[in-house]
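In response to a reviewer's request, we include the raw inputs and outputs for one of the modeled complexes. The three entities were modeled together in a single run.
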Amino acid sequence: MPVALLDDFIHVVILAFLGSGALLAGLVMAVFSALLSFWAGRVENRVMIQVGRRAFYATAAMIFIASALLETALVTHDFSLAYVAEHTDLSTPIALVAAGFYGGQEGSLLYWALILGILGSASLLASARLGPRLAAYAAGIMGAIASFFLVVLVMVASPFDVLAVTPPDGLGLNPVLRDGGMLIHPPVVLAGFAAFAIPFSFAAAALLAGRFDASWIAHTRRFALVAWGLQSAGLLLGMWWAYHVLGWGGYWGWDPVENVAFMPWLATTAYLHSSQVQERRGRLRAWNFALVILAFLLVVFGTFIVRSGIVPSVHTFAVSAIGPWFLGFLGLCIVFSIGLLALRSGGLRSGGEAGPAVSREGAFALQNLLLIGVIAVVFWGTMLPLVSGLVGQERVVGVSYYERAAGPLFVAILALMAAGPLIPWRHAGAPFWRSLVWPGATCALVLATLLAGGVRSLPALYGVPLGAAVASTVIYEYIRAIGRWRRAGGGRARALALLARRRRRYGAYLAHLGLAVVVVGLAASHFWQQERDVTMRPGQQATVAGYTLTYRGSDTRELADHSELVAAMTLGGKTLEPARATYAGLGGQSLTHVAISSSPIADVYVVLAGINSDGSASFRIFVNPLVSWIWAGGAIIILGVILGNAGSRRTVAEPVPARVASPVGVS
Amino acid sequence: MIRWAVVTVVVAACVGYLVYSASGGSAEYYLTVSELRSHQPASGDVRVAGVVQNDIQRSDGGLHVRFTEKDGTATVPVDYTGTLPDIFKPGITVVAEGRLGTDGIFHARVVLAKCPSRFSTTSYTS
Amino acid sequence: MTLIVATLFLFAAGPFVLWPLIKTPDDGAGGESR
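The model returned the following structure tokens for the whole complex.
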């Protein structure tokens, strides 16, 4: 017995105290880094600025150590830690055990801090060339954000809390969460949020330092792209996971948790485009600062909403102690940001004359307005329950609100995406209007085809033709560019080399193409979905939307911790096995295993509702057209981001081509 | 600059109109079981949240179900046809969307259950 | 115990963080280091 107690004690010493010690040291170092960096930047003491920066690196190291310790505790099944006991057990597959690091409240906060530490350190490494004051303030702000997370980790939600008695086994994961989607979706989403702290920090630092040039944009462009890519992937992975696991045939419900992940993405998208205008033409400065700040505030806001439980959602939230902390942090960020913008409002006015509206600058400005409009729509829908509950009877909006309010805005944005890449900078002349023939003709052709095919759903009639128009613009641009280069001499090899040199632009076009594919997939699978409830005896057939399924029979299988009721069906030559798993150990909780047969045309999606006493089985069958286009389009988007930005840091922002003979020289 | 101010105002007005018209049509009331009988509006769906009681009756292979929802002191029988959320069983909280009929039964079009939380406070009491 | 461990970590990180102060300064601000 005494040996076991000693063993317990050593265990506790090695992991829990090391971990909490590392976090506490990290907190001290983060506060030190923030305070020193701000002071040293103010007085421009270069030595102290370097010290402050190194303190941030040390903070990141402490967070990394704490993370490594937590992961070690998880994979060695150290149930003396409350966190390990609450989120894993001995029977959980090792991959899900490891994923427990970011799966719970405390761990996900540590993961957020880890991403901030790593990416923040990377962004500071080469930051000195931005000028000492700007670099110092950026370190200070990132140190302050890290300090907040570390304060919460140390004082309110520590992953290293120890249980009084070490249990022999943990509680384990709820069966619904035991899925591959749990492995990938949360860390990608969280990393996408945390990554955007970097552009925010540099933008705020630039404002603080009175620097209104675009250097902070160029420096943090990579990080903004990484954040955007991760957020895009996170949203799509979440949709994919919901589609495969939850069994209601859909992938997006406009639930508050989904909405608060969507809004930062919208703001980040607007920023990525709008920042180009500042880089090329020095305009939209105020917009860019505002968009970066808005995106980050939405990230903090979303984190607060998800962890505080104040808005009703189908996701259960623990009403936890950290809600008020995040509310306070959100308030602080809002005050800081507004104060900063007000303080520097004088310098924000862009120089130069306001250009003509029909120009690329104008298109980007319009895009900003439209995306902000969508954010406002989603924000209102998300917050209505809270606001209305405060002043009277609580009301919630249904899914149709989002479609009716945001739909027209999405249509306008799609139209802009189809025309945008063709609009020249500065002034759109006749060549531009002529080039609109391509997306216009594609749109008209697809629209006519749909109408001829009997499609009457208005959203689909807007979404699919416009998606096709966006795609046609991208293809047109590619063809035109390659044609131009081949004519200029050098042949195909030189053309490809030039493509690589201009990859920032053509990678972005590829991402546009991916988004067009996603839009078409969304429109088709949402508005043309068909659904049928059927009850069948073995040997019977059912036909849904032209797909014939034959029910063969059912079977019960006993597994380690659950029993599975499996129904066998054949579709053409394929076998589908929708199932229901029952977990006796969890009070008889049952879980649906959806059976999906995917093809580029449509998914056949079968849910087993149950088996009746007379041997017949009841199913809900969906046919979802073009769902796989959503996932494929997502992959194309990511490919576009990677190809467009891989390699040399200094991809040339190519000179603005003069499509119209202009008296002004090329900028 | 004036031109852009005008564009901004126009877009803002459009967004405001869209929000107003869309929420007017589809916003639903979110009621407690106790409020259901007294506060249900004349038309339109409402949402009711409550805890599932022990009297679940299924038929039609599990596609049709009748159960009782309870919150605080009031209960209401719920009738629903369709697939249920996986974690549906007595003791869990559900949100039913539909209307209370003159027969005193809430006819649900949708039944949603709260997803198991990734951030649950199920603390381990040793 | 946590405090002791934290202090040890801080002492370990000290030299790295304070290196720009410790190293023999070149004239002026010297080369910009990371």
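As requested, we also summarize the result in words. Residues 10 and 17 of chain C are 10 Å apart (CA to CA). The radius of gyration of chain C is 14 Å.
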